[in-house]
């Protein structure tokens, strides 16, 4: 295998290339504007996560990236993090490939400082704080929205760095089956099937998938670490004659992942699950009310330590949307309960159960979406009362101004907070012998953040560009204090994260191209060091070309070095990854797809073991699949 080298001058290269990219499309854009072409703007998608209401990307007054169904099908990734890596403002680390622990950093914040939602249902581990991205099969989802910047005033705790929302298909039209099967490197097998459609006023989508691989070593010279995942999805909705709508959703993923425990193979069984039911009622022509009841579960059984953890989040959310001409108002309330069950009383180093295994959060929130064209405004306010960390008030204000028909200037200010996890607060006292001890701290305060952003977007018929700069200040950061080998979490550190993001996308004739450039400066203010595991420079380039029955494409992601530790002494080198893909529509409703991940066979590392060894990711790997259906 080739050893990856740190990326040098990445930002300079990308910025030098930017004028060429802009100039290459300017003439075509001007021609389209002159001709008055009013074809729907494919590159200005509708988003709902940024403002709790449908808005096009330029109207959302947010830095947002949409990964649509066409992109998901073209790239056919084995994991969601493959899609997220290198997107504007997004960084990814992993402890190996195929079902191994992964983290997603949005604008330099930590994995547990951003929120993951599936069709509006929050999914995370209440003990660790962050979601298990690695256990979600990309084939279960139709699209993803990545909103960067704090959204605490809309979603409460954890929405400090941003929000990722995954959407499942709703179903429409005649019954449409879809079947896919394939396999490839590391004795990998992938199967999936789905059925979507509508019957009268009832829409439905059912899907199932299976992923099984022998995996590859996560430590040099180690054993293969396998992974399997079985997922099932059911979604139905029905619209009554009155306009009221009822719907249900259930998504469950379960399986086993193998990992390296001090040089030996160990296994963890897991379950990721969301379920919800909602009802939406048009009370008047200008007032719609929606009630959602949901539950999310994160379960794991670690056989090395004979431990079982089951965290559940149950939520009742009531939203009311009122329209007044061009303006819109949203008023709502939310009740959320987190609970932890199971046993951590197995062999060392785990000990007894948590002292407190249940907590609830009550909240009320409101938002005003005001349109005084060419000036628009979004203002929101939320009050949270949590029995574990007390009361928090968060808010945001965003202003947008249409400079002309195709350019929008925006600025925003927002606050958010991160609630301490069950582990932070209640982890029982553990004596590690010669290694000291660890205990949770029930006196922790919530981490709080405030962020300021300035951005501008150019939206044209066949292409767009978006530039933003921001600063996020985080106070009461939770870190670990160690005295004479005894450790506990405390509130001490402050962080300042500054950054800039550029994204460009175009669809011209049979070409689809997208470029993302990210610069992030995540600084620990108490030391002046970079926050661990964050790259500061990232560049992603995606290109696809349709050639009749064939399609060809590739993605290139380059990132500079990062540090494993807070002291910035353990440096992890930068890398460049090339992924290739090809598709062939060889018969009506039949297609084949070949993907080659890490085509240049680079060895790259984004995290390190406690003993100093690197977590290595998979080298060159190829996967071939055959698909039936639309």
UniProtKB/TrEMBL annotation:
Per UniProt, residues of the TonB-dependent receptor plug domain are: 58-163
Major location (coarse): membrane
What is one term from the GO cellular component aspect held by the record?
A: cell outer membrane
UniProt entry tagged with the keyword Ion transport: yes
Keyword presence, Manganese: no
Q: Which UniProt keywords apply?
A: Cell outer membrane, Ion transport, Membrane, Signal, TonB box, Transmembrane, Transmembrane beta strand, Transport
Question: TonB-dependent receptor-like beta-barrel domain: from which residue to which, for each copy?
Answer: 184-598
Location(s), subcellular:
Cell outer membrane
Its placement in the membrane is given as: Multi-pass membrane protein
GO biological process, any:
monoatomic ion transport
Q: What PROSITE patterns does the record point to?
A: TONB_DEPENDENT_REC_3
Task: Fetch the Pfam families from UniProt.
Answer: Plug, TonB_dep_Rec_b-barrel
First and last residue of the signal peptide: 1-29
User: So what family is this one in?
Assistant: Belongs to the TonB-dependent receptor family.
The name of this protein is Vitamin B12 transporter
Which species expresses this protein natively? Halomonas shengliensis
